[in-house]
Structure formats: C-alpha cells, structure tokens
Specification:
Layout: H1 20-38, H2 49-70, H3 76-105, H4 108-122, H5 126-131, H6 150-171, H7 176-195, H8 199-204, H9 210-224, H10 229-245, H11 257-276, H12 289-301, H13 306-312, H14 315-322, H15 324-342, H16 348-374, H17 379-402, H18 407-417, H19 429-435, E1 441-446, E2 451-457, H20 459-462, H21 465-474, E3 478-483, H22 505-508
Parallel strand pairs: 2-3
Antiparallel strand pairs: 1-3
Helix pairs in contact: 1-2, 1-13, 1-14, 1-15, 2-6, 2-9, 2-12, 3-4, 3-15, 3-16, 3-17, 4-17, 7-9, 9-12, 11-12, 15-16
Length: about 500
C-alpha cells in the first residue's frame, strides 16, 4: 500500500514532520493483512489492515497538499512526479517477477488472465478488472497473484482526482473541511446502501471506498487547524479530563490525558475489528468504521500519547513500517503461487517460510530499488524512466492477454524441449526394428535389454513418454512407445469432429 513519508530537501512541496508512530501504524496494518492471507483461519479479520492504510494515505497526502496550498508552493508536476518515484519502483519489479514466474507455473488460460491483471496493476484499474471476475473472498481469488493490487488502484484513482479537487476548492475560497465532510459522507452512504445487495461491487468501487481516505483528509484539516477553534476545543477538553482523572493542579500534569484517551480508543476499535470482522460479513459497510476510526484516533492522538510513543514508535515496528509497501506487494504473490503449485492451502511451515522470504525481498527492494530511485538527484529523469518502464510492463501484459497466454509459443517451446531426451519424434531404428513397422512415432528409450514398459496411443500418450522414460531409467528399465497422432489405439475406430482427426486411422492402427 502507498503511504507517504519525508523526502529530500530539494523538492518544492511542503511535507509534514516525520512521525515514527505512523510508521508503526503502517506496520500494524501490513502485518494484519499478512496474517489474514497466510492464516485466515486464525486472523479472520486481518484484511481490515487495508482500511487502516486508506486512512493513513488520505491523512498524509492531504496534509502535503493543504500545507503546500497554504504556503503557495503546490505543484501538480512535482506532486505526480513524487507519486511515480514512490509507487513505480517496487511495483514494476513485482509485476515483472509475477510475469516471469507465471510463465513456468500457470496454464495458458491462467497466464492470459495474469496478463490482464498486469495491465490493470500497471495502469491502476485493477479494482475494476477484479470486480468483473469475482469477489475478493471467493475460492478462485487464491489463484490470482495480483489480486491485492485492487487497493493500490483505489488509492491512485484518489490521487489523480483529489489534488485537482483540493486546488479548485482552495482557489474558489470555499470551505475545504465542509466539502471534505460532505464528500466522505456521500461515499459512506453509498457504501451502506449498496453493500447488502452487491457486496463485490461495493468492495472494489472507488465511490464506495473513498470515504475511508476522506476520513484521513478531514483529520488532516482538523490537525492543521490545531491553533484555531479545534485547538481551543481540544485544550478545554484536556483541562476537563485532567480535573476528572487527577487530584493535582492542572498546570503540573502533562497535557496527555486527551491524546491517551484517543490512542486507547483507536487501539480498541482496531482490536475489536480484527476479532469481530470476518469475510462472511457484508464488507465494507458499517463494519469498516471500526478500523478506519481506530486509525483516525491513533493518528489524532499524536506522537506523545503513551501507545504511540512506546508501542507504535518501537524500532521493529518502524522498520516494518518503512518496508510496508514492498512487503504488501511481495507477500501475496508468494502465497498465491504456492497455493497454485500445491492446488490447496500450503502447510503452515511453508506459509511462514513464504512470509520470511517476503520480508527479505521487501527489504532488498526498499534498499536497492526504491530508495535509489525515490531519493537523490535527477528526479525528472527518474520519473520519465519509471513511467517508460511501467508502460512497457503494461504493453507486455496486454500482449500476453491478446496472445492467449502465449499459448502457441509455449507449445512450440515445449516440443522443442523434447529434443533433450535424444530421440526423434517420428521414430528411431531400434524401435522400428522391434515392431517391424513404421507408425507415426516409434521410440525406444532407456535400457534396451530390459524393456518393461510399453506405451500405445495417440499424441496424448506420446506426451507421457519423457517423464515415464526418466522414471524407468532410474530403475534400469526401458520403454517402448508406439502410436500415431490423432489415432486412438482402437482398431477400426475412425475419429470424427476432433481437431487433427486422421481418417486413415483404420489402416494405421
């Protein structure tokens, strides 16, 4: 998931002060998602980590935009250039790896679908593609290595539209807070209305999800106004709560009572969400209020609240938070391909190993790919390079989709690979000498003095020969294979209405 942090000083936009506790909250969000995907029977509500990410992203991006507008240094070009350098490095890497792995793991129809998903992921409309196929919690979802990119699509769609909206509102001297609240409320009501009769569409569509990012937007506006009316109201509430909880004079008690109350409230909402919410519920609906409001309260509490200072600012959580974006991208690809290879949920030990590998890959991606391309000089050149790479990946995915998963190419390569077994397709002399005929194919492999296996059939039977021969060779045995393409080994049978059927089969068999 995309989340924003500090950047280099050379950039023009105004950035919020770095908060380690927000990195810790990112870690909570991504670890919840990882736990759900790897152990859905245990952490059945872990998918709400995505909703926490939405709030974080909405808050940080809105803070950058609003402060930059107030300081009159907002630039659309700089904003989107930063988005490209933030999102594209890890995403391009993961899409390419998914494509390469799919070549060896997926069937042509699955590989064709992967090509479509690569296009959707590269151009940020995965949520629309997946909506047309099935639900996020359907059984077939486990065999989609790029299923998780739906959330990235919603975020990027928000980033495309929201900066222009904020700029127009600012230029028109309208009340940003009022319009943000109204926009979020409309989206939330659409979500409530639609989730009961079309849960899949509600799950994937931006208009029923944007309210979660708008919660972060509204929070950003409230915190920017900390010295205004909102700030004065918070100070009054702090004084009242201090008098309720403490006997000492107000001026000797640190002003953390209200922040701590916010933080504990937020943590409680998230814990309840993880425990109570499951994939059997209509989601998002009203249930999404638990994780989103939980994230709002934790961010609103500020870095001095006990939970934020002691727990979320822990070095381990901060480290996980910094690699949370590539970790989100990597973990599901590994788990999904393992599921496809095993045709079922892999053993617990294998899943734990996959998560460990995902952590390593995420750290390497962050250190070797993301940071060098995101930070440092030559920002414009990096942006152009990353844009060209992403467009190239989308073209590759589209070519895969249009070529039906490169079915013809993969078929030809498979037959070319059969040459490694060192026998001609049409037949070899030892075999012909034994059967004293010349069928479509006649092959003898392995130990010629101990032929224990005979394979008779059409091209389907012929395709089994390499594997059977290798197995026989281990035991010192030999194999003989006799048959003809498109001719089942049944005397007098004439195949009809079959691709490649041979009318001369009665004379051949």
């Amino acid at each position: 998931m995309d989340v924003e942090g500090r950047t280099v000083a050379e950039e023009a936009l105004t950035h919020p002060k770095y908060r380690p506790d927000i990195d810790g909250l990112r870690a909570v969000a991504v670890l919840s998602v990882l736990a759900f995907h790897a152990f859905p029977e245990v952490v059945h509500g872990g998918f709400i980590g995505v909703d926490i990410f939405f709030v974080i992203s909405g808050f940080l991006i809105s803070t950058i935009i609003f402060k930059s507008l107030a300081n009159r240094d907002f630039s659309f070009l700089e904003f989107y250039s930063r988005r490209v350098r933030r999102i594209f490095p890890a995403l391009v890497t993961v899409l390419v790896v998914a494509f390469v792995c799919g070549w060896f793991v997926l069937y042509p129809d699955e590989y064709r679908q992967l090509g479509k998903h690569i296009v959707g992921g590269a151009l940020f409309f995965s949520n629309f593609v997946l909506w047309r196929e099935s639900g996020y919690f359907d059984t077939s979802a486990d065999s989609k290595p790029l299923l998780h990119l739906w959330s990235l699509g919603i975020e990027e769609q928000f980033y495309i539209v929201f900066p222009l909206f904020a700029w127009l509102v600012w230029k028109g001297r309208l009340n940003l807070l009022t319009l943000a609240v109204l926009g979020g409320l409309v989206s939330f009501l659409l979500n409530i209305r639609d989730v009961s009769h079309d849960a899949v569409r509600t799950f994937y569509m931006p208009q029923t999800r944007i309210w979660e990012l708008m919660e972060g937007c509204v929070l950003a506006l409230l915190m920017i106004d900390a010295s205004g009316r909102i700030g004065r109201m918070e100070k009054a509430a702090e004084r009242m709560l201090t008098r309720v909880f403490y006997r000492a004079k107000v001026d000797v008690i640190p002003a953390v009572t209200l922040p701590n109350l916010k933080a504990w409230t937020g943590a409680l909402l998230i814990v309840v969400g993880l425990w109570k919410i499951s994939k059997e519920m209509h989601f998002p609906g009203k249930w999404a209020l638990l994780p989103t409001l939980g994230a709002v309260f934790l961010i609103w509490a500020g870095p001095e609240a006990f939970l934020n200072r002691r727990i979320l600012s822990n070095r381990i959580l901060i480290w996980v938070g910094k690699i949370s974006y590539p970790l989100y991208l990597w973990h599901w690809i590994l788990l999904s391909y393992l599921y496809i290879l095993a045709t079922k949920m892999p053993p617990v030990g294998v899943r734990i190993g996959a998560l460990a590998v995902a952590v390593i890959l995420s750290w390497l991606t962050y250190r070797l790919i993301e940071k060098p391309l995101r930070f440092g000089g030559k920002g414009r050149r990096k942006t152009l390079l990353l844009t060209a790479l992403m467009l190239s990946v989308s073209i590759l995915g589209f070519a895969d989709y249009k070529a039906n998963g490169f079915q013809t190419l993969r078929h030809n390569m498979a037959f070319a690979g059969m040459e490694q077994f060192d026998w001609p397709y049409m037949g070899n002399p030892p075999c012909v000498a034994k059967v004293k005929t010349q069928p479509g194919f006649c092959m003898q492999l392995g130990n010629p003095n101990h032929i224990t296996i005979g394979i008779l059939g059409d091209s389907t039977a012929n395709a089994l020969v390499p594997g059977v021969a290798k197995l026989a060779e281990v035991h010192g045995d030999g194999v003989i294979n006799i048959g003809h393409g498109a001719c089942p080994p049944v005397q007098g049978l004439v195949p009809t209405k079959t691709w490649g059927a041979n009318p001369n089969c009665p004379e051949i068999v």
